[in-house]
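Open question from group meeting: does this chain pack into something compact, or does most of it stay loose? Before anyone orders reagents, we agreed to write out a predicted structure and look at it together. Recording both the input and the output here so the notebook holds the full record.
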Amino acid sequence: MRHVLNALVVAAVLGCGLAGAQTQAPATTAAPAAAPAAPAQADSGIRSQNIFEVKPDASQDPGYLDQTNGERQRVQPGNNAPMWRQVSGGVTGVSSLPVEQAPEAGNLIQRFVTYPGSHYTNAGEAWRQARNNLIIPYGAALLFVTLLAVTIYYFTRGTIDLHERETGHKIERFTPFERATHWSNAIAFIVLAISGMVMAFGKFFLLPILGGALFGWLTYVLKTVHNFVGPLFVLTTLFMIVTFFRDNLPHGYDMEWVRRGGGLFGGREPRSHRFNAGEKVVFWGGVLLLGSFVIGSGLFLDKLLPGFVYTRGEMQIAHMIHATATLLMIALIMGHIYLGTLGMRGAYAAMREGYVDETWAKEHHELWYDDIAAGKIPAERSAEARAAAHAPVAGARVEGSPS
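Structure tokens returned:
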């Protein structure tokens, strides 16, 4: 019995000791809780703030939208809206690069603008929307409608043929220099048009067939070809303008040709000189006007024009001008190519060989033929040029002649 009482006393003593230790533990662990109070007195370093301590009506302050990023941090920690509003608004920051070399180095996001076919957003996104929502779909529709119209006309009207038999007498329509100028310009234009259309529309019809790797290499090669052929197109276009400028000047009889639609929908072709009104539209509207926009914007995109500071916004506008003018020019030239090949018999041979039959000249360019028949224009200009080049100079001493 005595042993049992001793065991109970020992158990009671141990129980009291454990209870005392447990009641003292919170006191020992609570002491470090006051430690973070010391850094709170410091003025430097990063300080956090409990979100539940933020004023719930902070956004209702009168100057809320005009706050700087530092002021916003005091009422709403972590809200960097003022800084990003400046970034997206085109505010220029600090950059170590010289302005003349990198004028936009301090701008992360361009200013907000509205381009045709875009919403009011930053200029980069607006350009993307204008390209994808306006230029690409409507440009593709324009080319498709043009091709469809040419196809329908061909299968309903066929090739424009001569009404009378050929005489066998040839008239020189284009000299070797004129043909070389035309073909070099035409080949350069076709290369640029094909490479440009692949870069613009290729992902819709070539990418699914070729795959990403092969299509990527193809577009890279075509882009390089496009950049190198561009200056050749510029040079040959200048030669085209100088060479054919005089014969494309408008005259009063061109209005009759336009009024009757060039005879394309019935009847004989109206009278015209060396080039009819349709060819003059291609020259003035396509080669000169649209060609100037295509060339100017293309040289700008290649950064070949001196005296300009090339920024993202300017490059985006230049691209939109270049793409729009190019699509319009391609549509116009498609009609010209059709009439110069399948659409009119003898037209392609005229540019390939330089000569046309007397009947062809009379039926398609009657006023030009009349001047040739009257002797106002030589029937073979290159032969006269060769004769003039080999003619002896007046007053010169001919070899073997008496002195």
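Observations to bring back to the group:
The radius of gyration is 40 Å.
The CA atoms of residues 5 and 174 lie 135 Å apart.
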